[in-house]
Amino acid sequence: MSEMARSSRDHAVLRDRFEAWLAGRLPTGAEPQVTSLASTDTNGMSSETLLVTAAWTEDGAPREERLVTRMAPDPADVPVFPSYDLDRQYEVIRLVGELTDVPVPRVWWSEPDPGPLGAPFFVMGHVDGRVPPDVMPYTFGDNWLHDADPGDQRCLQDASVDVLARLHAIDRPEERFGFLTPDAPGDTPLARRVATARAWYDWAAAAGFPSPLIERVFAWLEAHWPAEEGATVLSWGDSRIGNVLYDGFAPVAVLDWEMATLGPRELDVGWLIYAHRIFDDIAGVMGLPGMPHFMRADDVAATYEAATGHTLRDLEFYGTLAAVQYGIVFLRTGARSVHFGEVGPPAEVDNLLHNRGPLERMLAGSYWT
Fold first, then answer.
1. What is the pLDDT of residue 45?
2. What are the CA-CA distances from residue 228 to residues 61, 260, 270 (Å)?
């Protein structure tokens, strides 16, 4: 859970190429200069995120902008997902910004051509704020969220749940976000979402990392399918506080939309709950107290239901669905660590799963009680 390699790209080369690309995007005479370009390494293990400072001339006056570039990873660097549709992510952020008051960054440009930087990318504005860290996990202590007053922690929790309520209130989501419909078999949005996750796992397994435990969890999901899926909403997909920038304890930018889809509202609520629980589980393994009072399932559900008027169902199923997808992420990041020589090949593939114990307890029926 410490610092892990994500990319083999040369930032000096990327800086020069981004500067040349920017010159073609801005008006003649802008003469842009990229004064800094760096990666971020505290959160996110999928798309490559570059923090860029650029200066140019606009209407005869100097202008400087801090930008964030999200680009697809190099296929040689063991990406988390089999494919990356950066233009789709750009469009989701743009529409959420237009249709809601959910805070999202300003989107500047989308570049689907891999030529300029070596991979498709999009550019958005930089937003000042702070994020609960992934490395080391915020549940380990010695960071702003863990050390905050419990009342402030609860304010952040409730404000984060409210983000989901506002996203799920978008009307006609299947019309407005039809491009998010998964290209996967299934008669319902949930069936297509689970089929997408299964195809993702099959791809990871075919690369030499088959997990018997993950396959057992998928079988459990089939055997415990919800009787009623409920209405279809815009699902953020990766709904966790590590993908939010906060000013104090209030969200100022909702980030990371690469898993956005259409489906039941419980997809996001279950993910929000488990995305904290996984870090709390790891803290417990390390002998740390963690934050068991934070993001409790009953508290999150009560806040969401009060904000929306909708009763949540089958959160055990949706939490387990979130957990198995975290397991697939761990398979891929583990394979990446093997690729970069940070660890040796595991004796058992399931040992790559940082949530192996919790997944086994879910199958035994003892985790969510």
1. 53
2. 59, 22, 16
